[in-house]
Amino acid sequence: MFLKDIYNNKKYVISFEVFPPKKDYEIDTLYDTIKELKVLNPDFVSVTYGAGGGTRDKTVEISSRIKNEFGIEAMAHFTCINSKKDFIKKVLDDLEKNNINNILALRGDPPINSENQDCYGDFKYAYELVEFIKSKKDWSIAVAGYPAGHPDAVSFDDDINYLKLKVDRGADIIITQLFFDNNEFYKFTDLALKKGIDKPIIPGIFPILNFKTIKKITSLSNAKIPKNLLEKLEKYQDNSEEVEKIGIEYATKQSEELLNNDSKGLHFYTMNKSIQIKKIINNLRHIIYK
Predict the structure, then answer these.
(1) How far apart are CA 46 and CA 3, in angstroms?
(2) Can you tell me whether residue 219 is helix, strand or coil?
(3) What backbone phi and psi angles, to 5 degrees, belong to 161?
(4) Do residues 145 and 174 make contact, with C-beta atoms less than 8 angstroms apart?
(5) Distance (Å, whole) CA 193 – CA 188
């Protein structure tokens, strides 16, 4: 099923992101995680390329198993990193053979220590990738949105203009990068609407489960942790169980507020975890499944 139809036909769409493990022997653990997530009845699961596109060859394989073995709609990630048109066409053919209709098209970040922009292949911007994919078939395409603005954007307004380009070239859905202040999301969606962007904008939720991990991730993006939350995390940063508890509670409250303010759904960055995600979804059952 196309993502655009899922969002048109459901009040709340719940989805998860997983990533291919770097080590082959960890793949069974990932599939165990997906089995656990399946009991939550997700509307789709997306599969990343991994950092710098390093695990791209596993994305089709995992997406195919999610769709054809686990019976969950799958969305495969594409990035501009090292992507030539012939390669993209080949992967699209592979996805089509595996009954996968949905794609998340991203610019992507250069590999660590990359000194130039040559790594972007035939596509420098995500809107170019969207346009190329759409020209091959009527794929359902999601793109990224940045509630705090893209780190490389000249201005917040300029970033929204690039988002409009992605929509104009064929994007159906916008999934945001992580954020922790819902006011950033509301400001972002209001400005997008003023720019004429009328596609569903889905908040990306990143449950904080590890202090060091979230510090690293926020250092690479514009996402800011609210002061009160940061103080709590810093207080218990050496207590992993307490950090996880704080993260689950915050993700639950953040998600509940978004759903009560007309969000079409939630996209969870699972970090290949299932137990913690199940706790959050169970906390939201009174809204999602009513």
Answers:
(1) 11
(2) helix
(3) -65, -40
(4) yes
(5) 9
The residue type of 160 is I
Token digits of residue 15: 């989805």
Q: Are 102 and 73 in contact (CB under 8 A)?
A: yes
Crossing angle for the helix pair 240-260 and 227-235, to the nearest 10 degrees: 160
Closest CA to 145 of 125, 159, 133: 159
Half-sphere exposure of 175 (CA within 13 A, CB side): 28
Structure-derived torsion over alpha carbons of residues 209, 253, 39, 24, reported in degrees to the nearest 10? -20
Name residue 105's beta-bridge partners: 78, 143
pTM: 0.94
Tell me if 85 sits within 8 A of 132, measured CB to CB. yes
The amino acid at residue 74 is A
The pLDDT score that the predictor gives to residue 55 is: 61
pLDDT confidence of residue 255: 98
Asked if residue 53 has pLDDT above 90, the reply is no
Quote the CA–CA distance of 53 and 111 in Å, as a whole number: 8
Active-site annotation holder among 17, 131, 184, 244: 17
Q: What is the DSSP string of 28-60?
A: HHHHHHHHHHHTT--SEEEE---GGGTTHHHHH
Question: For residues 126 and 105, what is the distance between their CA atoms, to the nearest angstrom?
Answer: 6
- Please say whether the dihedral angle defined by the alpha carbons of residues 229, 235, 238 and 241, taken in this order, is positive or negative: negative
Domains of the chain: 3-288 (3.20.20.220)
69 is catalytic: no
| Whole-number Å distance between alpha carbons of 254 and 266 | 10
Residue 151: its pLDDT value, please? Answer: 86
Q: How many CB atoms lie within 10 A of CB 31?
A: 15
Contact 243, 233 (CB under 8 A): yes
pLDDT value for 216: 87
